[in-house]
Amino acid sequence: xxxxxxxxxxxxxxxxxxxCFMFIELAVELWQPLLMAKIIDxxxxxxxxPLIWKWGxxxxxxxxxxxxxxxxxxxxxxxxxxxxxxxxRKHLFEKIQSFSLSHFEQFSTASLxxxxxxxxxxxxxxxxxxxxxxxRAPLLIIFGVIMALVVQAKLALILMxxxxxxxxxxxxxxxxxxxxxxxxxxTLDRVNSIMRENIANMRLIKALVRSTYEQHRFTQxxxxxxxxxxxxxxxxxxxxxxxxxxxxxxxxxxLFIGRSEIQTGTVKAxxxxxxxxxxxxxxxxxxxxxxxxMAFSRARASxxxxxxxxxxxxxxxxxxxxxxxxxxxxxxQFEHVxxxxxxxxxxxxxxxxxxxxxxxxxxxxxxxxxxKSSLLQLIPRLYDVTEGMIQIDGIDIRQWKQAQLRAAIGFxxxxxxxxxxxxxDNICFGMDTVPEAEMVRAAKDAQIHDxxxxxxxxxxxxxxxxxxxxxxxxxxxxxxxRVLIRQPKILLLDDSTSALDVKTEARLLQAxxxxxxxxxxxxxxxxxxxEADMILxxxxxxxxxxxxxxxxxxxNGLYRKMVESQLGKKGLxxxxxxx
Amino acid sequence: MLKPRHSxxxxxxxxxxxTAKENIQTLKRIWTFLSDQKVGLVFVIVLVMxxxxxxxxxxYLVGKAIDRYIVTKxxxxxxxxxxxxxxxxxxxxxxxxxxxxxxxxxxQKTVYSLxxxxxxxxxxxxxxxFTRRQSGELMSRLTNDIDNMSQTFNSTVIQVxxxxxxxxxxxxxxxxxxxxxxxVTLLIVPMMFGGMRWITNQTQxxxxxxxxxxxxLNGLIEEVLSGQKVVKLFSQERAMIDRFLxxxxxxxxxxxxxxxYSGFIPKLMNVxxxxxxxxIAGVGGIFxxxxxxxxGVIVIFTEYARQFTRPLNDLANQWNTLLSALAGxxxxxxxxxxxxxxxxxxxxxxxxxxxxxxxxxxxxxxxxxxxxAVRHVSFSVARGETVALVGPTGVGKTTIxxxxxxxxxxxxxxxxxxxxxxxxIKRASxxxxxxxxxxxxxxxxxxIRENIRYGRLDATDEEVVEAxxxxxxxxxxxxxxxxxxxVLQQDGGGISQGQKQLLAIARAMIARPAILxxxxxxxxxxxxxxxxxxxxLARLMNNRTCFVIAHRLNTVQHADRILVLREGxxxxxxxxxxxxxENGFYYELYHRQFTQxxx
Lengths: 579, 599
What we know:
The complex is a heterodimer.
Chain A lengths: L1 H4 L6 H33 L4 H49 L3 H7 L1 H43 L1 H48 L1 H6 L3 H27 L1 H26 L4 H43 L20 E8 L9 E8 L4 E6 L5 H7 L8 E6 L2 E2 L5 H6 L1 E4 L8 E2 H5 L8 H10 L3 H6 L7 E2 L8 H13 L5 E5 L7 H11 L5 E5 L3 H5 L3 E6 L2 E6 L1 H7 L1 H22 L1
Helix pairs in contact in A: 2-3, 2-5, 2-10, 3-5, 5-6, 5-10, 6-8, 6-9, 6-10, 9-10, 14-16, 19-20
Chain B lengths: L4 H11 L4 H15 L3 H34 L6 H47 L2 H6 L2 H43 L1 H8 L1 H39 L1 H6 L3 H53 L5 H42 L21 E9 L5 E10 L4 E5 L6 H8 L7 E6 L2 E2 L5 H5 L2 E4 L8 E2 H6 L7 H10 L3 H6 L7 E2 L8 H15 L3 E5 L7 H15 L3 E5 L3 H6 L2 E6 L2 E6 L1 H7 L2 H14 L1
Parallel strand pairs in B: 3-10, 3-11, 6-9, 9-10
Antiparallel strand pairs in B: 1-2, 1-4, 4-5, 7-8, 11-12
Helix pairs in contact in B: 1-8, 1-11, 2-11, 3-4, 3-6, 3-11, 4-6, 6-7, 6-11, 7-10, 8-10, 10-11, 15-17, 17-18
């Protein structure tokens, strides 16, 4: 929390100013009952009309003063709140942009998004409010008691005793409510998740005739939700009546004491009126208190979540002496590389060694979870190796600058990520100016040009949330065009052609041959692997075998099995016959 | 309970534009939900009236007490008045508590029944509804809207009613005490309305602007963070930060003005409170000096003035909350108004067991009445036959399955099962005899046992295990920490894609269907699991009528018959070998794929 509030520092003076304005307002409000007491005791009771006029005018004047202070406070508080939100978002975003992918997994993208949006808004509101009412309610209560004591200590004694007790009661209730609330939230999550499941899978539920069953499941959770919501709401609703009763009872006590003291002449009528008036003002402030504590605890949780991000140390960084030179050849060498994801116990890659000459094509085969994608991700340093070393052109990749390294690598990840914008924006992503011809060439090689030309807007077709939805295969090809346009020295394809039909895929692979780059292809298709200069067969993170198709077919059982399962026995014998 | 007022303002500007007529209609509709609880509601309203009256009575008596016992020092009746006051305050607190207690009950029951109705309605909607609507959007809408309604019912209704009552009551009592001082007090009302109006005019457009900027910023955040991998791979971090800062700056600008102006509202209320207090003290003092009012009346007026600026403020705030909840309610009702799936025909029969003979007679169907998804499709399938549907994407394979399961009815022609037109069979009875193994396996949050038993709810534990064994799922299940009692997370998180498939097979196995529908998974399953799946499928398909939407040559080759589809029509049918000999479309499809694979 302290970490997050540190971003308020530049605005300390402004905050002080806002608080000054708030104090003026508060002072006026606290002064008013006192002035009324004067009007009654010195004016009405003593038949002094000019005095009534005088103090009445003063009251109106200070009311207007308070208003002016309030308006000024609005400006300053909004300024501080917005500046704070702005700088918090800015620093958060910059921090997150420096994260490596492992941090994204650690936090999950969805949670990072909530932290950047909801949590920041929550903090921003808290700052705004604390410059306005948050401090005001407690201050009004404290100074209310003090002022009442100043006016007439005998009458205000009851408040001295009662108000702290009520505050304790409030805090206790709020703490209990917090635990009840979290249970409601859990149940609500369950209800919503059943709804989500049902909406998403209605086809199957209907097909299996399971509506009644699902409704039963839903009803159970829904009932629990109703019961728990009722409990917590009812619990909270006891607060106001209790507060109100005791504060009202205090008024009765004040009247009671006031009457007996008036008999002896130590207390004046106006003083009774003033103390009663302070009491009612405090009652209103007390009920704001519940809201203030709730907002605070929410903001505290948000602050904690944001602080976690700031507290994270970035793991993938440029080394001090990293060279500026660009990668020229594109030779890749893995030397005893082992890797496990940060925070995970088990290795996904173990002691993997191989070397690839420049402009070779290598296929990586293996079961799901064998470590294929992990292996690719290590090359552009999306993660750093845990043990061993990866070299490109004979230099440890940690010695390259990240920007230089990645500029030479064209990586098409398995999950297809396009940004909203036109197809042109997406293909030319991150390039300053690109000649039209180059873009078209990349699109043609990626076998997407013809498809694009069928769209009414062609390359200016907007894709993403607000535009047309591309099919998986189309997205794959745009992603490929996006890396081809950069003429990479190293091309990494992570199962990026899975959604393409056989014909298109073949044309694509053919077109890739024109590029002078080292290519690594993760694939499930034997037909693709067969074309490679070398095949790497991974199993459980180990490099099981490497060699050409023919070598593996002769020496490796698993590879044989894979070929059989995809091509059938017949296919296999055809292959044998062909070779 | 006080709620964060400012945050509510954001949602308001859009909602206030709805017409009064629409709102009244929605209100009427909500009333039908509430009307089950008329008695309770009447009770609450009586209590609200009581508490409003009592909250006026208290200060009134305090004022009287000051006049009689503080200012003039009378002797009689003080004890009685004090005890009366205490009783009134006790009654006030009690009635406040009780009205809230009951109202919460009513509100939550209403929300409960609304949720239940909605959920039930989902199950009665035709499947086209879910295809039309994006499930994410639907969900967020429902959860937010219902939650909003729940909050609003809980407190807003009471607040609005009691504010209005208190307002009227306060004015009546004030008028009876001193019309002149009342007039002075009411001076602030036009100021209040004028001020509020000015502020709302200022804030509305600024809030809209802020909302839009916030939306854009959040959109950017979401996109960049979700696409972080690509951002990194292309070293675009700096560019993204620049884009972000630009939007962030815009948000700051619009946010500043929106927040400043909306910040004026409480300040305005404050100054009006203070002004009315000053006016009452000053003018009241002069009146008292002239003997027109007593000091007690001044006290009463200061309290009442507070009691009615607050309700006016509340009314303004709550009104907006109410309107946005109404808009939410309307969206929920929109869904409830969606047309249900057509009922089974009156004379539809119940078919306890079917043999599994399927016949399509000249079936045509179109989703949009424009383009036929399938056209003049005819074929018949004997019991126990395995039929593979083959063809490029979008040729109508899925449509045929949807027609068979009666998610849609054909526009033309008929589908017969065991010689009955499917429209003559009750939907539930028909679907109960079918089982599905689909690409995206539906696993819900629950244990593995429950997920398998989903296929047939009365299956015993032994049957579950047996089905799992047949489906080659038993061994991996036993390796899980809690075996069959392992709780799967949402969408079956925690187990692999292949294992999900095995569970789906077990689930189909336990259902003992007459007709089986398979939509093969395409990729991303490792070879070993793939073999296990194929073996399990073979067991499952044994002796059952099977429809297979095939993507792989392997399955197709083993099918008893292959239906080759092209643009919504069946162009060829026969076995793998006979079709190859025909040298037609299938031959082309097959060889295109096959030669690619061997070359």
